[in-house]
Amino acid sequence: GQVGAAHGAALSSPPAFQEVSGYQSRTWKVVLCHLFSVLTAGLLLIVFHWKPSLEVRAKCRPCPLSQADWVIIQTWAWISTDSPLQQRQQAYCKVSILDEGWTCADIRLSQAGLTQQDHSTKRKIYGPNLINVPVKSYLRLLVDEVLNPFYIFQIFSIVLWISDTYYYYAACIFIISAISIGLSLYETRKQSKTLQNMVKMAISVRVHRPSGGESMVSSEDLVPGDCISLPCDGFLIPCDAALLTGECMVNESMLTGESVPVMKTPLPDGPQAINLIYSPEEHKRHTLFCGTQVLQAKSYVGQDVLAVVTRTGFCTAKGDLISSILYPKPLSFKFYKDAMKFVLFLAVLALIGTIYSILILIKNKVALGQIIIRALDLITVIVPPALPAAMTVGTIYAQNRLKKHGVFCVSPPRINLCGKIHLVCFDKTGTLTEDGLDVWGVVPLENSYFLPLIQEPRCLPGGPLLYSLSTCHSVSLLREQPIGDPVDLKMMESTGWVRGDGLTSGSAMKPPPVEEQPHVGILRRFPFSSSLQRMSVVVKLPGDAPAEAYAKGAPEMVASLCNKETVPGDFSQMLRHYTADGFRVLALAYKPLPPVKTFEDAQQLTRDSVESGLTLLGFLVMKNVLKAETAPVIHLLRKASLRPVMVTGDNMLTAVNVAKSCRMVEPKERMVFVNASPPDRDSPAALKFSLAEQAQGQELAEVRPGGTAPPCHLALNGKSFAVVCEHFPDLLPKVSPSLCPQRSLCCSYCVGMCGDGANDCGALKAADVGISLSEAEASVASPFTSRIPNIECVPLVIREGRCSLVTSFGVFKYMALYSLVQFVSVLLLYTINTNLSDLQFLFFDLVITTTVAVLMGKTGPAQELGTRRPQGSLISILVLGSLLLQTAILIIVPGFPVPAPRYVPLNSTVTAPQNLPNYENTVVFCISGFQYLTLAVAMSKGYPFRKPLYTNVPFLLALVFLFGLMIGVTVYPLGFVKSLLTLKGMTDMNFKLLLVGMATLNFFVAFTLETALDHGMLNWLRKLRRKKASKKLFKRVEEELRQQPLWPPLDQPLLATPRMSIAVR
Question: Where does the record place the Cation-transporting P-type ATPase N-terminal domain (predicted)?
Fold first, then answer.
């Protein structure tokens, strides 16, 4: 939006829209805010610290952006921030957007470099090329930490306890809080320093100047438009840059998780570059990303390897990674929202209890000051300040267990989200199958007819087919060892040819020593592009032979680029023959290039001119072997009612064969191809379902009218999916609910994605839970990175997610019930004008509750992956029913004990702590102590998501010790224990045994209740739910399809109507 046009402006900045609103300070508002801050003893300042945008709105008035002193930037789906406006501009946008209109030709014009004046101007706009990780001082961290709502509540509680003469308890809580703050400050600063050191990069770079000279500058001084020269022996890229000359072999594992080095080639040149808009995503094969390691840079014809800086600082790929670590995207998970709602419910309960206690204390004629302290004290009892910290315990344990198994997580809150996964998508090559493919053979083409398969490509005679196999690849030499894509390596090895660097321009391919074949020089590479589905090279034979272009890629794509007369009529039949058997098939083609004589001539060629009018040479057939772990894991997921889905760029028939091999599709299940054709002049868009051919010996289960059909699996390619999205939106949930554009909102799917990070970064980012198979510990592509090189990590992550989610529920319920136990205990004692003593509170909160809450989350996940998923909502009948019934038991049990013989009535004219010890206090102390431990056992659920309680040895030992301690305190307390805890000595052994018996009964009732709720009530609820339609779309679709055994309509084209079509953006 233009400055001054309105009070606010909306700007688009991936991945979200932003709204900028201008505000101008008003003196009278500022003075009024300062006055209220003084009157509220600084409370208003604390509120402003928690909500900075509230301060801006309180002190300022909305105004046009041109007059603004402050702006509030609302980033939808991210976070709200505010910032003082330091400089006026004509429009608001991210700095990186300033150069988004660059064409490839514009970038090539920057090869001469920037003048000093241009450099200075750009430096003012872009700032230094630094990724500054803020490292706050200890004082600043202390202020931020202390002003956290949790510690504000703690300070309020400590002041209240001191005024109520609870000195020991207040002192212990203060010491623990101080230690906690100290450790938090140390860890926060340590992590910030570690991250700062990791991203700190200041190296010397050679920069070209328009005068023709070069200068060595610090990488901090680089700005977009600078032309840098890369050394040949390796280099850590300090910015994002577009490669102009030469080739680079780059290790990008830090960004994508892809462990295979990637070949980078120069940016397109010539006429095609004039209108070609440069995009780091579209031109990633020509872009060097910040933080990646150049293993080898190779120049041609004596030139330097040159690149133009395109992005610096936080706008780079590495900057994005660091930003995602510093400012993670807020996780929208119902569990956390429900937790906050429940805390509000506890606060309302505290208010009711406060009103009751005030009435009781007034009735007992307690002094006004004491009434206020007692009422406020009740609030500190029922709202557990340690609740947020306790709920993260299970996640921390799960994160550490995953790390021990080689799975790293940079977003711990997503671990709980793993417990709700319904569907898992898998990349094929490198994930379900081995990285490398074995060459099965070559199918040559002669006179437009396919010849029989030749299993040894090295036996081919010298000619275009052999030369295409030996040159059309991205293999490079690093320290005399060939490196590159596994497919390219296998293809090259099958010919026996080796890579050499004998030519001054390009690189050379040498035949085996025993063969008399000419060396072939590679003059130009057009790298593989997943969107184009092909790659090509320009090669030169020795002597006066003309240069030739060789192309390799997806058969359908390569065939579309060939002259029609060179493509045999049985092309599709032959392709289907091999792909249906699970082979990966690549087509090879070539064409002579008579005008190209030199390396310089090759650099002037456009990709479109090279990859057109080709002559088909034949097929390269490769066998892609399933990883040994794939089939068992897929079977395990299906058994657990988790849908596995394959997402691949390979041929659809090959993908179907792999799906059948790994039992993603069972032998008797239907496999249906979905073919959608876009509308043309005479006919609307059409959709057709075709049943796949079955292998010999396999029979489909018969579908009878009114019967249940076997599961139906659909296979469709990207083009068909786009047509379905645009012209058949009503059928989209039936055809592909997991890929529905509004999946999260409409289909209610929680989707996981597992890939190797090579060509699936977008899918890994888009999924709710992305798992990248990589050697790196962190990847920008996904929150989870697994060093386990196969999909065994998927059930592991899901099991840990379920365990962590159940643990979070258990700890939450325990902390809530612990607060209710103490709340009920205090209210009972208030009724008779007494209370718990200082050290009794300390004993419950530190010795029992803290020990239990920390250790109960240590229980590991169950070994088996069951069909059930844990509850994802706290506001449910099951959870609320458990809490309410357990609370009822807590209220009933203390009312059972009868007065013991020699009972001395309480002097109600004296308040606590002056009337301590007394019998009532001692009885309530003993009963509530047992209740804390009973609840800990009841809330520590094992099967089906966690291991049994006894496998958590530290927790089990703690329970045995604490139960033993409580029995000892109840039955035979030692003298110093009675004195320390202010307990009344009870001489009647029968009464003491009655208390232990009550505790035992309470234990069995509470444990039985939780078990009954988990099994009996859950099954009862499931039966009720069957009568009601599910709220989740995918479940309703599944039920609808179950009742339609004849769907989809096979071989009956469905035509789109105008009403069905929608605009896809």
Answer: 110-161
